[in-house]
Design brief:
By secondary structure, the protein is mostly beta strands. It has no helices and 10 strands. It is 0% helix and 50% strand. The strands form 2 sheets. Strands 1-2-9-4-7 form a 5-stranded antiparallel sheet, with no helix packed on it.
Length: 117
Amino acid sequence: TFYGDIFDLPNGDVNVVYLTPHVPIAWHRHQKQDDHLWLISGMLKVRCFDPDSGERIEHDMVALPGARKVVVIPRGLWHGYEALARNTVVLQFNGPGKYDGTDEERKDLKDEPWETV
């Protein structure tokens, strides 16, 4: 479940995503914005890759009381995430501008499988 632009900020979007376990929100990248992910509850796996350098990054996150770890995904970097447990909720800030749909590029899981990254 996606709740988009919940605060209607002038310089970005704040979204809340309630995730289904083991269903990846897979490969995409943005040309104009950076993503900031903060895990509110549950367990999350974040994966990123750069096809030019071959670099692959993986973050496993567990929501703990008082924890405020934010994963920042810079514009241009392929990324996705997956809930590893029920009741996983992510707060996402996209900035610096508003998302307008022209910023996002997607990659099919057939071209870049989620499990092999």
